[in-house]
């Protein structure tokens, strides 16, 4: 390298003239020769000359002047570079470089040679956003570990916790890197440490590279310098930058390709990029080359304009050019270092908003040492790598550059150098990011890089030590936030000195800070780095300073007058900021404070945290009262303090008191968290409604699962700590004061509340009591282990609702730090889940709603672990609490434990950690006891504003107190009043157990003058009221909650400071009430004479509604006192709760037991009737009435719902034939012949008439389901490799198509169109919900839908609507033909006419022309519905005739519609009629009406009697030869080639309707003879020559027996002999014989073949008969289907005996002598086979073998589909689609929404759905695992048929867990496809506008 460097220096400084030896650049040959020559020259020991020569060549080739002209101006450049267009020069230069690198050889061979020396054991594949990668938590050491798909599948991860994910920001594969993942997870390629067996790189291979690359990279840098222009202040300049980047694309790609050559080339590149000498020589700009100078200047300008300085030139450049508007702050030594970043960058466009009072903003002093200054402002580049990174940042991280820089990372030396460079530029990166317009993209690219560098602990540690990474990060974070500070308005608006971030700023709103924060969290996850942070006091101070910016942000002020005009949505930014910038780093630090040795760290954090808090209290001027009506949810300093305390006690065995501040500080600490709890209650009481919805949003976010353990949990814990250390009376009174319910706590029946409206009192009181219950019973941080916490969280979530596995993972607040033990999905999660819950497998209702696999709590969980407190704490919505209680109630009912409405159960708690024992003093303080006593009394006396919930909480608190009472009192303890008892009038002591029995006789209350109590004479006063007695007569002490709290506070303050007197301002208790609202109060004295125990017993009577209902249980059963835990008390309502409490009270003290017995002995007088004023009575009555009305309404609604439900079940159940539906056709009495219909719109019933026809609501849809039948049983599989392709030539549709076109080739067109049916593809299927309506009613209904602007899921203009009754989707109305009811048809009576007469009648009837009935309304409707039917399908599925628009086409189409509907019904019945019974659609079949419409239209086309096939079937034609007379005309289709079922439909539809039964039977009999003959012909062709002669022989012998015409042997032999006259059998070569089964035909197999051949016809015919004549189908076994159907159709003679085996031929009834007519039919075939023997055979009708249609079979595991299809290229546009999809019917691969494959404005999926399914498409979206259904112009998301191990869908593959096929769901999908019920079952349809 030294030689190269010297040569380079010589070249730069030395002569520039080109050496003569260098040929002019031109032919590639010359280039190769030159390269070879130079390589040889350089290989000599003295290579000076060669080096110079090479440099000169490079100088000329890589000159930076030409190309940039191109960048600046296209046209001139084109001229300049010799017409080669811009870019020609660069290509030329690249060619040269490639030649020179290869040293004269081929470039590709060179690449291969270098690759052979690749020692890299790392994969290092770099990917960009949207790439699909894998993450395995089992193998990962760092949480950011990721693998490319190839490495993942080659490694062994069975049973691991892995998932597939779509990369957000890009990433790189970590396979082979043991710093990031465990070696066990490496794939096969990277397991071997391969460096040992790689040979050493030969010197000359890469020699040229070492010379050429420095120049190449320098050239690239020059381009970057030239192309960069400082963006003007107002115009974003991305355009210019992108232009430059596009020009440089080939160069950067070239570098990228070099990195992919492997380790050998990478190390050369590393040398080049990091060599400082090279850089200095080439870029210093000192040479006389003007170009180089200019470029150096541009570089310096770019540095300066970025607010950066280049150390040496600081003075020279800074002062000269300060006029140019660049920032000179940097030069002035960053005066005092107090300017905010906003000023620092004042030259940039960033601060247009500086006007918002930068002056008023408080500037936060940063430590003004030069460290920060240099971090933000100085950059010095010493190598190519550094300058390259600089430009990468300036150009805002172009993807190509990022990829190049990352591709180099497998080189260890480079990795270290690059990481240091990155850290050096860190501040600059963040400044650029802040200004960027594309901050999202840029953030992603930054993180793409940083996550590769900082996830590696070793590297992070090194950079922290050598480059001050932590200092840099914290400083940069501070700088970033400083630009958006505003004055805090919390507490003291005018004088506050505190500043907070402004959540409305883009920086916070758009989350621009996240790359920084995520890097910070990433490096804090490394223990070595976190330790440095926790030891560095300066850093901790700075960090707390940073955290305090968020303390009190996003302040809410309660709107008291009108609704706020503009609801700001900044709250989300605030929550995100606190979570990401404060909480996440906190959890990171906490994870390293797990053991005793780390106590010091905790002490440090706690110390600086308290200091910051003290500063904060001072800054906002806080004394002791929070300002009213404002709340902030953001107290990160409090939360830091709380979490470190919790950790200290739980893991580090620190003494809690050693880290607690003094009492005064504790009192201050508790105020704001308590304010939040009170505000939550206010928000839920609708006191903040004028602030809009966003305040509810905040209250929800605060407790929501992702935030709760960084928000509400620390707050409650901090309050618990304060409560355990402060005076309990003070704390309790503070709580009630904060909740504004002090005035409510009076014995008086009326009171006035100065701070709260009466309507909010009840819910605020509930809130206060609930808060106390939570505070006293929550143990999350007070002694529960991690597993217990997890279990409690899980139980709470499961009790609210059954949950899917993923939603549980999401809802349970994970310990947010990734390295903590409890990661979701970890071992403990699964084991706890299986302990508390049962899995309910996914279920499917036929109605279509598909549930996922759910977990539901086990019975014993409901029994013992259901914890209402935890549920209340964790519910985001109040309704979830109700839901949990409902489920609990249902459980108790079901298990028979409790029939009524239970109360929330009382749950035993985990024991308290000894440090927090003081918390329980709250339960044993007089203040609480007075409150409980008052509330019990008020409830008993039915005062207003109390609820069952209040009582429930009061009892809960009493019970908590009994459970946690410490001193077991002695019975003798006399209640001596010590002198210090200030309010002896209330309770003697502070222990609840003894206070419970204390009787209180008189209470003095202050009441409004209007109150009823005033009228009474006051007895001598003995006791004063708990509230509001401001002065008092003589002896009784004043007791007021508020006064009590003030006094305590004063004592504490006095204790802590002597000069406190000046601080405390005297406050009045009703400071915030409006002036003049002070009520007129007067004093009254109430006689009470109760104790808590007596109140409880009376309450028992009141709740049970009986006098003396309570009887102490221990009087009967003394055992109870010995083992009191009796399950009968654990579940129940209020009565049970009271009994349980009394039992516990009796257990705790004998005195209590005695007193309870005494109270019960006195027969209690009835509860005194309340003195109610008239006004109160009114309100009470009103309440009662309201309550009753509400109950009535509930009842009605419930009834209505159940009715609707039962109706929906009957109406919507698609698959149950038995459902009995109120039907439109009432079964009339025999004498009535008119059918009666109900109109579901107007509600009238009546027959359908000519002028007011009734119609059936129908849905017409085109269908290709029939065409998808295949003839093999094996279902087709979805292709998952290139080999497995599906070809559609064996489908039913394809076979029918081929047949029709063959016929059309040889026969007359009109005749061909009568010989087959169409509609296998695109046939029209008609279905109805069975409801009828008047057609005129329907028209007005459509009109109203048209005017209704509500967005419907259907298009009214296309005639779509939903049935007015059952809301089923429909698009037409099928008129009902007036006339007889099907069931009692006079035509059904069997007649005794002979078959000959019937045949004649049929012929005559068919011959009559069907005149279209007169213009009635009915006929108009019939016409319009026919139009609808035609328009349902596309033209290509209707027009098959050679002459367009021929009537034959319509004729064919119409009878095919009938065929389609019959065939589909057959498929719905499973392909045969064995089950019998009515139609599958119940009575909901519209075939009868459809037949009328079709027949009416078919009769318009009379078939010329010449050609009517009926004649050919029933008459012998005299002269056979006449047909062959005219050769040139195409013959008609021979009868034997006709499809018999089609003939049947033609014959029937040509008859006048309604049809007579005997005519029908006659037609069937005649057609059966033809069918049977066809079967015989088919058999004869299947046999081989010997078989044929044998059959011919045996048949001929029997020809003269009596029943010859009904013996198949005779007939077969006759057919064979007839056809032998033609060439049908002759053409068989030897090869075909092999195909025919060698098995000789036995008579059984022959009989079976003939029956199978005839069965499809018999099935369709029986169905038709069932619909036309209403006869039921008999059910039967499969083997007897033929005989049952033929007798049902009347083919079997009635006297037929069933003894001997059934013979199909016995059904034959020949209208004319059999042999004559057969020979006539065979003659037609013979004459055709004369000319076309091959086709003649192909056209013979084969036995139909169609199996039921199926969707493609899918593989077990979704990954096989995904891996094959998500990278597969589309066959149309040959690109990899963004949204690939695959059709589940035929397996075609399509681009969803792809514009590339659009044809005439139809996107590919829509187009395919029309071609493949006639408008119905079923597509699997590869990237989302969901199925999408397209039906005509609408589409819907159907759901997924792939579920994970927990029975859940994974839409969009967000979770990326392995998915497995769910067979039941796929069945449901297939069922809906076959039964055409997508429209009815799926509810969420939307239009797709052809864009899918």
How would you describe this protein?
With 1892 residues, the chain is an alpha+beta fold. The protein is built from 73 helices and 28 strands. The strands form 11 sheets. The chain has a 6-stranded antiparallel sheet. Strand 23 and strand 24 (1827-1831) form a beta hairpin. The longest helix is centred in the middle third of the chain and has 39 residues, at 1174-1212. The N terminus is likely disordered.
Comma- or semicolon-separated keywords:
single chain; 6-stranded antiparallel sheet; flat; 3-stranded antiparallel sheet; 6% strand; alpha+beta; 1892 residues; 28 strands; disordered N terminus
Layout of strands and helices, then pairs:
Layout: H1 2-13, H2 28-43, H3 48-61, H4 65-72, H5 74-80, H6 88-102, H7 107-115, E1 126-127, E2 132-136, E3 147-148, H8 149-154, E4 162-166, E5 171-172, H9 188-191, H10 207-227, H11 238-259, H12 263-274, H13 276-283, H14 290-305, H15 314-320, H16 341-344, H17 370-377, H18 384-394, H19 399-407, H20 412-424, H21 426-435, H22 439-454, H23 457-467, H24 469-482, E6 485-487, E7 499-501, H25 506-509, H26 514-524, H27 527-535, H28 537-548, E8 556-557, H29 571-590, H30 599-619, E9 630-631, H31 636-650, H32 663-684, H33 693-703, H34 712-725, H35 728-738, H36 758-777, H37 786-800, H38 805-811, H39 827-836, E10 837-840, E11 854-857, H40 859-865, H41 868-874, H42 878-894, H43 926-940, H44 948-963, H45 992-995, E12 1000-1008, H46 1041-1056, H47 1060-1063, E13 1081-1090, H48 1092-1104, H49 1119-1122, H50 1134-1148, H51 1150-1161, H52 1174-1212, E14 1237-1238, E15 1245-1246, E16 1254-1263, H53 1292-1306, H54 1309-1315, E17 1323-1334, H55 1335-1347, E18 1361-1362, E19 1369-1370, E20 1372-1375, H56 1395-1407, H57 1417-1432, H58 1447-1468, H59 1487-1498, H60 1509-1514, ...
Antiparallel strand pairs: 1-5, 2-3, 2-4, 6-7, 8-9, 10-11, 12-13, 14-15, 16-17, 16-20, 18-19, 21-22, 21-23, 23-24, 24-25, 25-28, 26-27
Helix pairs in contact: 1-3, 1-13, 2-3, 2-6, 3-10, 4-5, 6-7, 6-10, 10-11, 10-12, 10-18, 11-19, 21-22, 21-24, 22-26, 24-28, 26-29, 28-30, 29-31, 30-31, 31-34, 32-34, 32-36, 35-46, 36-44, 37-39, 37-41, 43-44, 43-48, 44-50, 48-50, 50-51, 56-62, 57-59, 58-59, 58-61, 58-66, 61-62, 62-64, 62-66, ...
